[in-house]
Amino acid sequence: MIRRGSNTRSPSPATRATIAARAPHALAAALTLCAALAASARAQTSATLVPTLSPNRAGAKGALTLAIQYTGGEEGVPSPVHRSVLSLPAGLTLEVPSLRSCSAATLEAHGPGGCPAQSLVGRGHALAEALVGPEVVREEVALWAFVGPPRGNDPTLELLGEGSKPVPAQVIVTGTVVPAHAPYGEELVIPLPPIPTLPSASETSLADLTLTIGASGPHLARGANTVLVPARCPAGGWPFAAAFTYADGSSASTVAKEPCPARAKHRSARARVRLARAAMRTIARAAAPTREGDRPVTRATHVRSTGAGAA
């Protein structure tokens, strides 16, 4: 704590006048700095990741849906993504009973219809945005995911995006699956080229993206491509992560977890108790004596003898 001494002199009238004259400029500078910092925070692109396993059950065969939303950026349009890395839980695998692949060259020449049906592993959609002057132009994009030719020992996915209005465009990117550090098992590394846009528009950005890999439902088709959920759910849930590098040179990451199926476990425990009680009642009824004439027999003996006589 600073204490004012008894011999401290007050500022002269000239000094007070100078301070009063400079105060508005200092305040304006401070406000300008705050505004610049706020604008920088708004311009910074960020992303959220929401994974969903269906069914959400350890060891089940089903589908994985990844929903990604981008926010921020200049004029509210996110900075374009130039590279993404998706980290997946250890033990999560893609099961393709009839393994077929489709190359980027085939997709470019013939579109999704030119690929073997068994190579299709996912579908989805995205929303693309671009600035044309002060106006934000948006375009719906359809997505397909195919098993691609391996790169050495690394599996690949070929991702196709197609839009029609206002700009007919097709983008094909190749994602490579590589090992990841714990608690993840594998990473899908995807470099993204610039997306075609209008001549006077900014580089096209992704505002959101949803992609479902695998298939789910009560009656899966024989030979359907599915995601195999890990046999064990770690404490806190199955971990997912995503890291993005943007066109403006910035980078950011996000993490998410798919909760463990606690309710399903409770239902399974109750079901096991009900089954155990039903089995005990069945055994008790089978062991209860009955009378057949003057000879006491059990139901089990009666059933077996009837079967032997029929034979």
Describe the secondary-structure layout.
Layout (H helix, E strand, L loop, with lengths): L12 H31 L2 E9 L6 E11 L9 E9 L3 E3 L8 H7 L9 E13 L2 E17 L2 E10 L5 E11 L4 E8 L13 E10 L11 E3 L9 E9 L4 E8 L3 H26 L1 E4 L2 E4 H12 L1
Antiparallel strand pairs: 1-2, 2-10, 2-11, 3-9, 3-12, 4-11, 5-6, 5-10, 6-7, 7-8, 8-9, 12-13, 14-15
Describe the structure in your own words.
By secondary structure, the protein is an alpha+beta fold. The chain has 2 domains: 41-260; 264-310. 24% of the residues lie in helices and 41% in strands. It is built from 4 helices and 15 strands. The chain has helices at 13-43, 104-110, 262-287, 299-310, and strands at 46-54, 61-71, 81-89, 93-95, 120-132, 135-151, 154-163, 169-179, 184-191, 205-214, 226-228, 238-246, 251-258, 289-292, 295-298. Strands 1, 2, 3, 4, 5, 6, 7, 8, 9, 10, 11, 12 and 13 form a 13-stranded antiparallel beta sheet that branches. Strands 14-15 form a two-stranded antiparallel sheet. A hairpin with a 4-residue loop joins strand 8 and strand 9 (184-191). Mean pLDDT is 81; it is low at 1-8, 26-42 and 292-311.
